[in-house]
Amino acid sequence: MKIKVKLLGNLVDKFGFKEKELEVEKGTLLKDLLKVIGIDDHRGKIFIRNSNSVWPEDELEDSDTIIISSTGSGG
Fold first, then answer.
1. Cβ(6)–Cβ(66) under 8 Å?
2. pTM score
3. SS3 of 7, please?
């Protein structure tokens, strides 16, 4: 399956890409994809799949677009 991954904010600098297409096996969970990218700790991150929220335990589907962003804080 092909999955498109888009990173936002400081994740672009940290992981070295803004958008990438990856090949994954059927049955891959979002948390498995995160490990492939190098995101070991998913706390403090927001995950969007095809314009909807998704959890690390959710299974990915062919042609999904996953957007990953860090949560922001200000004050």
1. yes
2. 0.89
3. strand
CA dihedral (63, 42, 12, 66) in degrees, to 10, reads 10
Q: What is the pLDDT of residues 43-73, one digit of tens each?
A: 889 999 999 999 999 999 999 999 999 886 4
Distances (CA, A) of 33 to 13, 18, 62: 19, 16, 13
* CA distance linking residue 49 with residue 66, whole number of Å: 5
Based on the number of CB atoms within 10 Å of its own CB, is 23 exposed (0-12), middle (13-18) or buried (19 or more)? exposed
Enumerate the domain spans of the chain: 2-70
CA distance 22 to 38: 13
State both tokens at 45.
């991150």
Calculate Rg over the CA atoms of the chain: 12
Q: What is the architecture of the domain spanning 2-70?
A: Roll (3.10)
